């Protein structure tokens, strides 16, 4: 039997200082529409693809695009790398600290994370999983204007995604 194909993702919507709820979703196994994006793309390209796919979805809902802020992406990067290395478990643990680390003055912040293994197009599977999940979709469709996106891949080939959503003041 081939490798297990898994996508687990958690979404969290928080308007600080109140903590929100977390949600989980599982995507469907890969299909023939998936390409070998992961084999031919750098992590930076994959992160850009997340932003493009999220903004395409937002456009379909008549929502403005999210602008990637590198300062927010750096905060997301630390969490993705920590999850990929096993330093922290796959979760939203520490979310409040990540939110407090954002230097952009903001009204609200939310987070989606995903774990993805065995897919030839990990971005597509993560984004589709988020869109199919009520909690993740709520984050994607909310009135945010900035985002930070980071993906980390470990030696086992596992991808860890963190997307922070920010509504600046």
Give a structural overview.
- The protein has about 170 residues and is an alpha+beta fold.
- About 40% of the residues lie in helices and about 25% in strands.
- It has 6 helices and 6 strands.
- The chain has a 6-stranded mixed beta sheet.
- It is globular, with a radius of gyration of 15 Å.
- About 40% of the residues are buried.
Biggest beta sheet summary:
6 strands, mixed
Radius of gyration: 15 Å
Total of DSSP H or I helical runs spanning 4+ residues: 6
Shape: globular
Mean pLDDT comes to: 82
Kindly state the number of beta strands: 6
Instruction: Spell out the helices and strands N to C.
Output: EEHHEHHEHHEE
Q: How are the SSEs placed, and which strands pair?
A:
Elements: E1 6-14, E2 22-26, H1 37-40, H2 43-60, E3 67-68, H3 70-85, H4 95-101, E4 106-117, H5 122-132, H6 134-141, E5 146-153, E6 159-168
Parallel strand pairs: 3-5
Antiparallel strand pairs: 1-2, 1-4, 4-6, 5-6
List keywords for this structure.
alpha+beta; disordered N terminus; 169 residues; six-stranded mixed β-sheet
């Amino acid at each position: 039997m081939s490798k297990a194909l898994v996508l687990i993702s958690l979404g969290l919507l928080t308007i600080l200082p109140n903590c929100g709820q977390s949600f989980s979703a599982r995507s469907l196994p890969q299909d023939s529409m998936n390409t070998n994006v992961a084999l031919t793309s750098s992590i930076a390209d994959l992160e850009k693809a997340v932003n493009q796919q999220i903004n395409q979805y937002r456009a379909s809902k008549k929502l403005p695009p999210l602008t990637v802020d590198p300062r927010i992406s750096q905060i997301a990067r630390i969490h993705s790398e920590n999850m990929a290395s096993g330093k922290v478990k796959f979760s939203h643990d520490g979310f409040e600290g990540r939110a407090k680390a954002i230097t952009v003055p903001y009204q609200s912040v939310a987070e989606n994370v995903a774990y993805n293994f065995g897919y030839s197009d990990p971005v597509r599977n993560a984004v589709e999983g988020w869109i199919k999940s009520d909690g993740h979709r709520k984050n994607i469709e909310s009135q945010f204007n900035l985002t930070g996106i980071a993906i980390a891949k470990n030696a086992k080939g596992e991808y860890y995604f963190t997307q922070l959503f920010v509504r600046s003041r």
